[in-house]
Amino acid sequence: MAAHCASASKGIEILEQKPIDIVLLDYDLGKESGFQFLADARELGFAGRVLMVTAGMSDAEAVRALRLGVSGIFRKHSSPAVLAQAIRKVMAGETWLDPGSLQAIIEAAKHAGPSPRDRPFTPRESQVLRGVFEGLSNKEIGAQLDISESSVKAALQQLFQKTGVRTRSQLVRIVLEEYGGGWKQAGVEGQ
Fold first, then answer.
1. Per-residue pLDDT tens over the stretch 17-68
2. How far is it, in rounded angstroms, from Cα 94 to Cα 89?
3. CB 119 within 8 A of CB 182
4. Please, what is the angle between helix 168-178 and helix 99-111, to 10°?
5. For residue 147, what is the DSSP state?
6. Which of 93, 97, 119, 120 gives 20 to 30 Å between its CA and that of 79?
7. Are the CB atoms for 51 and 90 separated by under 8 Å?
8. Among candidates 179, 75, 68, which has minimal Cα distance to 132?
9. CA angle, corner 165, sides to 162 and 70, nearest 5?
């Protein structure tokens, strides 16, 4: 099922009427706000995935979008092939971040205060976490690090256990929300 909407309010109407798995949400909706759409959709109980599409957002807006539950941020200047890849990854439960959005997260993490849940990650966990933030699959992370896909999965499981999450999307969110000071220990910052 696919639908096209010219406004956030029309999008909410469609969410009320039809089961939707993924929403491609334009950040700039003119008079309406993409953030308001997110809040309204969650209030309705929408549990699907949201890929925010933008020509540009500030670092703070990118971090806010992720905190509000978007599954990824796609920059409009990227190719249609990259959009298709982003949609597939988001539908597979992964988080999609282009390099600009990744930089926003790193900058936000640099300025975040220490967290009571702050636990240092091992060097391997830090490397795998970096791959997750780059939107790489387990296979791609393994190839990049010259380790097996099983080793990547094991490191992910350790990260999930340390952060108390079960999915990659949740991992990204918890690192953003609660491990701001842990980025340096995690080795993600500055690499």
1. 888 889 888 877 767 778 888 888 888 888 889 998 888 777 777 777 887 7
2. 5
3. yes
4. 40
5. -
6. 93
7. yes
8. 179
9. 130
CA distance 90 to 175: 18
Give me the count of residues in the chain. 191
- CA-based nearest residue to 46, from 63, 22, 24: 22
C-alpha span between 73 and 65 (Å, rounded): 8
* Whole-angstrom distance, CA of residue 188 vs CA of residue 191: 6
Domain 113-186 bears CATH identifier 1.10.10.10? yes
Provide CB contacts within 8 A for 90, sequence distance 6+.
22, 49, 51, 71, 72, 96
Burial per residue of 42-57, b for 16 or more beta-carbon CB atoms within 10 angstroms, e otherwise: eeeebeebbbbbbeeb
**Which amino acid makes up residue 34?**
G
Q: Strand 22-26 to strand 49-54: parallel, antiparallel, or no bridges (unpaired)?
A: parallel
- Write out pLDDT tens, residues 133-171: 888 999 999 999 999 998 999 899 888 877 777 788 878
Token pair 């971090």 in the structure block, residue: 63
Q: How far apart are CA 108 and CA 177, in angstroms?
A: 10
pTM for this predicted structure: 0.55
From the number of C-beta atoms within 10 Å of its C-beta (0-12, 13-18, 19+), residue 61 rates as middle
CATH number of 9-107: 3.40.50.2300
The two tokens of residue 91 are 């539908």
